[in-house]
Design goal:
single chain; mainly alpha; rod-shaped; binds zinc ion
């Protein structure tokens, strides 16, 4: 007697076994699809942190550049001032001397303004340096955190792939134990809808849709003479709860 001739009761039991297997395969596939997305999110959070650091570094560079240009303006004024002073030593009229004096005063005023601006820039530079240090520390922390999480996810991915392969192999061993027509019905069902195809009817209601089973249907299902389906959701009724230990 081949396995395919085994009683319907035994067939349904084996089919429950296959179904549990397929449900865990589905769950593994779902998790495997989710992992690359989780890794992408981690990578995005690392790039966000390093972009924030780069933005602060760029702002600081701008401030330092402005500071250098203001210092250069003061140096140029110093050269100009020396020229005016040299001219003052050679002019003969008071009027010309005073005109040069006003030019020098103008340079002094300009320098005073520039120095005020430099002070503001220095404060801004200090603020940005503190911010940059904070952001660099945050980015380093983020890198470390995500590297750990990423390593854990990659390990999980390897474990799941191994489980997947093992379960696929086991599945191949279960298939020949099920009568082809029943197996075809099962496959047609899981192509169209989610498992389960076999539902536990032993409690008087359908284990899948939870609706009460008619007493006549219950009786028929208990005989295992033919496949009996839930009149509501059309799942195959099995009168023994699927064992959680299988699979
Ligand atoms: Zn049902």
């Amino acid at each position: 007697m081949s396995n395919a001739d085994a009683s319907l009761k035994q067939q349904l039991k084996t089919l429950c076994h296959l179904q549990e297997h397929d449900m865990s395969l589905l769950s593994i596939r779902k998790q495997l699809r989710e992992i690359p997305r989780q890794i992408e999110r981690l990578d995005a959070s690392v790039s966000k942190a390093s972009e924030a650091t780069a933005a602060t570094a760029a702002a600081l560079a701008e401030v330092e550049k402005a500071q250098r240009s203001k210092n250069a303006a003061i140096e140029m004024n110093a050269v100009q001032r020396e020229k005016y002073k040299a001219e003052q030593r050679t002019v003969t009229s008071n009027e010309a001397y005073s005109a040069l004096e006003r030019q020098i005063e103008f340079l002094d005023q300009q320098d005073a303004d520039t120095e005020d601006e430099i002070l503001v820039l220095m404060e801004e530079g200090d603020r940005l340096k503190t911010e940059l240090a904070e952001r660099e520390a945050e980015a380093a922390q983020e890198n470390e955190r995500t590297a750990e999480q990423k390593a854990a996810l990659l390990q999980q991915q390897r474990d799941l792939k191994m489980q997947w392969d093992e379960k696929r192999e086991k599945r191949k061993e279960i298939l020949p134990e099920i009568e082809p027509e029943l197996l075809a019905q099962y496959h047609r069902w899981i192509e169209r809808q989610r498992p389960p195809f076999v539902a536990d009817g032993s409690k008087g209601f359908c284990g899948s849709c939870r609706i009460s089973i008619q007493p006549q249907t219950l009786k028929e299902a208990q005989k295992y003479e033919k496949l009996v389906r839930c009149s509501t959701c059309k799942r195959a009724l099995y009168m023994h709860p699927p064992s959680a230990a299988t699979g």
